[in-house]
């Protein structure tokens, strides 16, 4: 189709429940469109919208709204007035904001804002407790708000093709989460060991759960996970007193490990460590150290003398 405008007379068809106007050349809707107060589904995919038409605000019975593949730059704050909204898609636009009012949409189960220009999410998103699918891929996020872990019904989360530096540790406690798509976030490999990311959602959740628990117990246990590199997400937990990394594939100890000066117990049994750096001397509170079943042949003399 090549519609460039919708007749104002459409407002007289007050019984309409579904309107689909995909693949046209529409840049707006007539004000009279707001008279369609029974409308439950509106699709305007692949048009030429620069903004969400203001008349949509009057469609208070709307449950499904799809405006994918337009040129919209802003999601209006009044989107939160559409209280019955269940499915909302703004993917493939030019959106650079994310209104806090989305948290008011108590029935929202599917939110798609992939392939836009957003850099941050409001903490209020965690109030949209019915969310089960959240698509955030292809934006410019560097972080996710911790409140996202309040979305206990979330089963699908896609954050691929961003620049995420970390994930909220509480993500590991989200027991309903079945699909977690994280590809093409290069900096994330510095936070979560690639060995764990490559093993899928269960391993990632388990890792994040262990990090969250460590903040409470001051004990971090990551055994039998095939970890080959100690990421900063582990060593930045400088307050923990016990670190167990037995039966992994760790070959060397990074310098940032030796910032964990509160450690009293460190176990690296059954790894691939062939060299013990003298930086170990910085862990002055250690009372228990286990390097059994590693291929190194001797301790540095400096450590032995200490």
Write the layout of secondary structure elements.
Layout: E1 18-20, E2 41-43, E3 64-66, E4 87-89, E5 110-112, E6 133-135, E7 156-158, E8 179-181, H1 194-197, H2 201-217, E9 219-221, H3 232-235, E10 242-244, E11 265-267, E12 288-290, H4 301-305
Parallel strand pairs: 1-2, 2-3, 3-4, 4-5, 5-6, 6-7, 7-8, 9-10, 10-11, 11-12
CATH hierarchy: architecture of the domain at 215-306: Alpha-Beta Horseshoe
* The CATH C-level class name of the domain at 215-306: Alpha Beta
Q: In what range is the share of β-strand residues?
A: 5-15%
Q: What about the largest sheet?
A: 8 strands, parallel
**Mean pLDDT across all residues, rounded?**
92
Elements, N to C (H/E) = EEEEEEEEHHEHEEEH
The strand order across the widest sheet is 1-2-3-4-5-6-7-8
CATH superfamily of the domain at 215-306: Ribonuclease Inhibitor
Keywords: Leucine-rich repeat, Repeat
Pfam family, one: LRR_8
Domain Disease resistance R13L4/SHOC-2-like LRR: 11-113
Protein name: Disease resistance R13L4/SHOC-2-like LRR domain-containing protein
């Amino acid at each position: 189709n090549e519609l460039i405008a919708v007749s104002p007379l459409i407002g007289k068809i007050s019984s309409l429940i579904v309107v689909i106007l995909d693949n046209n050349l529409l840049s707006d809707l007539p004000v009279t469109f707001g008279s369609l107060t029974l409308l439950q589904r509106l699709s305007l995919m692949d048009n030429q919208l620069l903004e969400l038409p203001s008349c949509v605000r009057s469609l208070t019975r709307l449950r499904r709204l799809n405006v994918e593949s337009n040129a919209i730059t802003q999601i209006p704050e009044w989107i939160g007035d559409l209280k019955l909204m269940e499915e909302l898609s703004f993917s493939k636009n030019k959106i650079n904001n994310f209104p806090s009012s989305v948290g008011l949409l108590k029935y929202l189960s599917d939110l798609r804002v992939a392939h836009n220009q957003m850099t941050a999410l409001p903490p209020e998103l965690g109030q949209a407790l019915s969310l089960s699918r959240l698509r955030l891929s292809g934006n410019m996020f560097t972080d996710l708000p911790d409140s996202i872990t309040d979305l206990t019904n979330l089963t699908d989360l896609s954050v691929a093709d961003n620049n995420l530096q970390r994930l909220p540790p509480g993500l590991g406690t989200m027991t309903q989460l079945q699909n977690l798509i994280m590809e093409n976030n290069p900096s994330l490999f510095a936070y979560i060991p690639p060995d764990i990311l490559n093993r899928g959602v269960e391993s990632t959740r388990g890792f994040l759960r262990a990090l969250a628990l460590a903040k409470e117990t001051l004990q971090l246990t990551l055994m039998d996970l095939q970890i080959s590199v100690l990421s900063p997400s582990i060593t930045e937990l400088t307050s923990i007193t016990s670190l167990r990394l037995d039966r992994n594939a760790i070959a060397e100890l990074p310098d940032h490990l030796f910032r964990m000066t509160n450690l009293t117990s460190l176990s690296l049994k059954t790894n691939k460590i062939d060299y013990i750096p003298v930086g170990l001397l910085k862990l002055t509170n250690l009372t228990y150290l286990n390097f059994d079943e590693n291929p190194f042949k001797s301790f540095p003399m400096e450590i032995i003398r200490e």
